[in-house]
From TrEMBL:
Residue stretches making up the NACHT domain: 244-378
Pfam families: LRR_6, NACHT, NLRX1_C
Native organism: Sciurus carolinensis
Keyword flag Transit peptide: yes
Protein name (database record): NLR family member X1
Cited PROSITE patterns: NACHT (PS50837)
Higher taxonomy: Eukaryota, Metazoa, Chordata, Craniata, Vertebrata
Chain residue ranges for the region called Disordered: 1-144
Keyword vocabulary terms for this entry: ATP-binding, Host-virus interaction, Immunity, Innate immunity, Leucine-rich repeat, Membrane, Mitochondrion, Mitochondrion outer membrane, Nucleotide-binding, Repeat, Transit peptide
InterPro entries registered for this protein in UniProt: Leu-rich_rpt, LRR_dom_sf, NACHT_NTPase, NLR, NLRX1_C, P-loop_NTPase
Protein family: Belongs to the NLRP family.
Function: Participates in antiviral signaling. Acts as a negative regulator of MAVS-mediated antiviral responses, through the inhibition of the virus-induced RLH (RIG-like helicase)-MAVS interaction. Instead, promotes autophagy by interacting with TUFM and subsequently recruiting the autophagy-related proteins ATG5 and ATG12. Also regulates MAVS-dependent NLRP3 inflammasome activation to attenuate apoptosis. Has no inhibitory function on NF-kappa-B signaling pathway, but enhances NF-kappa-B and JUN N-terminal kinase dependent signaling through the production of reactive oxygen species.
SMART domains assigned to the protein according to its UniProt record, in alphabetical order: LRR_RI
Single GO cellular component term: mitochondrial outer membrane
Self-association state and partner proteins as the record states: Homohexamer. Interacts with MAVS. Interacts with TUFM.
Amino acid sequence: MGESTSPAREVVSEDRTGAWDLQGAGQLQGPRGLRAVPTEGAGSSWVGQKSPPRAALKGPLLQNPAAPAPRLACSGPGSGAAARAGPAPRRRAEAGKKRRAAPHPASQGLWEPAGDAGVRPAGLRRPGAGKGLVGSSAPPTPAERLPLARAQAGGEPGPAKAIQRHRRNLAEWFIRLPREERQFGPTFALDTVHVDPVIRESTPDELLRPSAGLAQEHQPPPAGLPTLALSQLFDPDACGRRVQTVVLYGTVGTGKSTLVRKMVLDWCYGRLPAFELLIPFSCEDLSSLGPTPTSLCQLVAQRYTPLKEVLPLMTTAGSRLLFVLHGLERLNLDFRLAGTGLCSDPEEPGAPAAIMVNLLRKYMLPEASILVTTRPSAIGRIPSKYVGRYGEICGFSDTNLQKLYFQLRLNQPDCGHGAGVSATPAQRDNLVQMLSRNLEGHHQIAAACFLPSYCWLVCATLHFLHAPTPAGQTLTSIYTSFLRLNFSGETLDSTDPSNLSLMAYAARTMGKLAYEGVSSRKTYFSEEDVRGCLEAGIKTEEEFQLLHVFRRDALRFFLAPCVEPGHLGTFVFTVPAMQEYLAALYIVLGLHKTTLQRVSKEVAEVVGRVGEDVSLVLGIVAKLLPLRILPLLFNLLKVVPRVFGRMVGKSREAVAQAMVLEMFREEDYYNDDVLDQMGASILGVEGPRRHPDEPPEDEVFELFPMFMGGLLSAHNRAVLAQLGCPIKNLDALENAQAIKKKLGKLGRQVLPPSELLDHLFFHYEFQNQRFSAEVLSSLRQLNLAGVRMTPLKCTVVAAVLGSGRHALDEVNLASCQLDPAGLRTLMPVFLRARKLGLQLNNLGPEACRDLRDLLLHDQCQITTLRLSNNPLAAAGVSLLMEGLAGNTSLTHLSLLHTGLGDEGLKLLAAQLDRNQQLQELNVAYNGAGDTAALALAKAAREHPSLELLHLYFNELSSEGRQVLRDLGGTAEGRARVVASLTEGTAVSEYWSVILSEVQRNLNSWDRARVQRHLELLLCDLEDSRGATLNPWRKAQLLRVEGEVRALLEQLGGPGS
């Protein structure tokens, strides 16, 4: 992913279980006793690493489950015999084979035979002999290698074992995943999902050419330019000259760190045969050493202990030795002879920067190969005469690479491990296909995914929306982690003495642009808008230099040219949610305050402290000199902090007011909740429909308040502090109090289901149970009917409301596409409900197990349970009856249209007496016949508490209905049996609503199902008309029968 490395001490303080923390392999001790822990980040590779202790090497090599095991002996392409080579006699016996495999580079020595003349250093080879080893496919000649297996067989210690230990240590180190990647499953590994970005060869002239404007800076590289593969980086150039130093550069987020990590792992697994030894250095680590004298040998030995045995031979390794210098922008180099003297001795102490300069000058180890990665602004720190090739990392400029990345990452088999149910392969495939279609048809998301880091963000967001959510993970934490992966420890310009954090600079400039866009409700920005925010307040040469660095290195990360028709020539934030995140960050950091407001707060604090000290003195002096001015001054010192405090408080109240209004803003009657909107923006499905009266250009920023709440949570504040964007505890408390005040006022109103879910999602992002309990204490009805309850939404509702203490009068989750896993997640909320509606959720018998457990829970207080229009069947009713037998709270149960049939009603009749509290039971429209209905009716009449039994719309004959009516007319029992829906209702008012609704939706509903409903209704009406003696009621029923017949004729059914 994107690049990021941070000081080890920051990583240790943030996460003791980081991806690179090698505590299990022993404490890594570096200079001054600091433990070196590589940075945790998707793009981070390593920071200040020292070689793990020898204790870490005991036991098998930690291998990537998805990658081939590192081959630790001769295993060149096309053969495996040499890899299994044993003692010398065995190898001599195999010498006659026609095809002998080339020995693996890991088994080659740093010394080579010189024929009859004896042994000579590898660096003193015949002219042209080493060309085959520098990235080309030509294998080294026999005179250029010495199989270390031969040295080991002869009993010599040799460097082979040391290099093998070095490979194992690097593999164990670099294969570890950061915490943000572990969410994708336990078998998720870099080898299984890595897609090489496009690398385009460039020239020094091209690098120095100034750009005309922002639009040209943001243009992707032309498609026709030649590209480079990793294996081609050290190939001879166009003139046939040997390439020893390669500089790879790319803006933030193009994948430099991930590329280095993959390259190191490839070498560890024997996939880079051109290099016998690879030594990676972090420039941030080298920079942290300052001018402390050290030697190259000491730098290597301190970081990679196994290589101590190889150090004497390092000078003779030639081009087979590869140094990797990652993050050159962190290291200040001075190539002037007056600043850095010449030195060719690897054991001569000097400043780390001076050692790197002499390596790059080719004055020290002139035959060694060097790979440098850097941001564009630091390219000029190495004079071009010392660089053999420049390569620009262009990210995923090809849409096919984006699709491949998404396919590999989203199809991980263990994606969604942990609690809950993982997505099926069909669901994952469907997700990938939807995303691929959106990449093809919606060019803006393809422009965003040009950066591999944003591909990671898209995958992480989809995983958050569609897979079981790890505890504590929020949308805000994903975006905060995303920025940490790309900006952790990054300073804007290492040459600037201010050491300004790159993220802090972005929050001030890009945050200002984002906030102005949210305030004015726009997402498209002209070049003048962008320049206005970038250049605001710049006066000095140093400030212009910082702006230049930011524009070259990071501006493309936040802004992308708009490719949508009608908006060409404008800019948009790379992903829409990033604008709302940065706007929220801009506010919580206090960057939106005016100068007067910032000064007012400081003055109030200073005057307040002075007032406390002076008040005692004034009180004493006032007794001795009763002057009128002294009490006045004394009161003034008390008033000033309050006045200034009100000014700052009004600013916070204004922010809270804007946030709450944005959260409860109902632009149209069909507004999706914020999570569905986010999924639609990524997958390309149709978004929320606009109200006809709404201006077409009006934008909705419902994520903005969610991010504001999320950024005030303790976890995100801690991560932001590492990024150089600290939020003071007092500011966070005051902002939270202002938000709580506004939410308390506006949150009492009855909200539409989608807006209510947004309200709950805000509390979920805030991650403060006490705050949520106080604000939501007035919530008595949870109505989310019609909201598609995904696993994430169930988690949100359960996390926010599950720990509350007050009861909920009603929880309505009708038509929410709930499944058994969702029921289990929402169990804490159900235990607080008195009325629970679960209609139209397609819940089957499996869900009845969870409902049984709910009814048997000792904290259950449900009095009304509605399960209509769910295929429970007789098996489900059997489980429900087990719950009813031990439940003491339920009084009303609706099982209308649940597919019970005769078997289900007979089960109810046999076990109804096991519950003594039930007052109303609805089993209408279940396809039951006369016998089962009559058995249940008799059981209901004998029940001590049952008052009403609904049996209408069942397969009852006219005789059966009459028997049920006669049964209800007897004096025995107390339960009333309703065999017809029209019994006791006002026909003219009641049926007109039903029929008008059917008429209006006749073309959109399932016609066969509607026809069946109307046929049952017609039979019910005819039977009721025949049973009544009231002529006025007969006329009403006859009129309704005519309307039902007319509808049936439209559907093609029988009209009579």
